[in-house]
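ingest -> fold -> write
write: protein_1
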Amino acid sequence: MWENILSYFETLEQRPVERMAFIVGGLLFFWILEGAIPLLEPKYKKTKARHAVINFSFTAIHLVIQTGIAVLIVLLADWCQRADFGLVHWLNLGVVGAIVLAFFVYDFFIGWLAHFVEHKSFTLWRFHIVHHADNNVDATTGLRHHPVESLIRGTFFLLATIVAGAPIYTLMIYQTFLVFFTAFTHANISLPPKLDKALSYFFVSPNMHKVHHHWVQPYTDSNYGAVLSFWDRLFGTYRQLAPSEIRYGLDRYYPNEQDENFWMLLKSPFSVRQTPDVSGETRKNIDVNQPSQPKASV
């Protein structure tokens, strides 16, 4: 049985239809579940379906780019096996050890570090804005990324692959978890408070990640984790906020009323510029011809 499981994930990269089924299936499941146990009352510009179409458009582009990067990842993972390069080889780990170590390495580099860097680097943040500009966070928001951000994330995938040096099946196992948690943590669902809190000690929970989508700092710059939650506790980036206090969107950088304008979202990162605010600290502001202090909706 164990060998069958490993064999399945080892060749999953060669079956894009099945990989797509995991992604689309998870998104649809939580997207439908949102109607039964909503966390916040959404205020879509038009309809829930139109909002989903906008986000799925970004998702489609993201998946095409990631498919291309996956080819490089497979080649790199194969090279690591031939050259005995990476932590898995240096520590002489077996199958279970390789899966566990690779899970931690991938989750750190892709789930936490890539996200942290995108928030701290102005150059990268301007592309990540597209994700945070969504005023109605739901299951479809999880893969709403600007195409350039998809390339940035892909770079961290390659870096993690080199560091781990693990077989490709370890990445497929992690990606399966990542796809599930991406839909789960962004979904507009309300879990029992005690269950959500208990879950957040080990994994990123819906309420924990929603804090990251609050429209003002320092909450926007917190809770970066994707699957495992202890990275934020370890590095001091963990914050709490009651769901009733959360407002989605951005307090600056992008006009919230345009959060479903696909073409403007694609172009906006190239018009964002950096200017000092009155306190002397650096702020990132959208082009002066666009609204600078829009109202956010939940």
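write: protein_2
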Amino acid sequence: MVNQKLITTIENNLDELAKTWFEEASKSEVMTTYHHFKEEQNFERGKAVYSNLLKWLKEGASHEEVEKYFEKVGAIRLDEGFPLSEVHYALYLSKKIFWGFVDWRDAISGSFQSSTTTQIMAVLNDYFDLGNFYITRGYFNELIAKLDEDRKFSREEIRKLLTQSVMDWDSINDDEIIWRHV
């Protein structure tokens, strides 16, 4: 079972976690697409990750719930025009801020020092790591669905979405590309 002190800490500091994430995201040179959205939207994006973490912990840390939440996030971010690398970085930033927050609180109070610390860390890492996996799956499933609709994207748009210019598309034989669900 996850430490109740941890749940209480997240509950009592949800806005502070979101505010810290928002401030870091606003300054990030990696998260440039986020800079095109309203501040309130981005604050809510940061808060949503921590709110969902809290809900997930309270409800028993089900992998199915993580899957549903993060696949939806991946699909929405694709529709909003985010490169996948930025979405991954946003979740990385959430995890980094979360652990820094918990570590700082623990240094002051000693609240989380116990024999179950490793178990708690494993459960929390599952949330963020599975989040990245399901964001990727949701993102690519949505991309594939859009490609199947009626060839909406040009070759250049697909290249931008998938590679952000890291691949030399001119050297790829078109017959070698097979689209399938992740």
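write: annotation protein_2
The first helix runs from residue 4 to 12.
The CA atoms of residues 159 and 172 lie 12 Å apart.
pipeline exit 0
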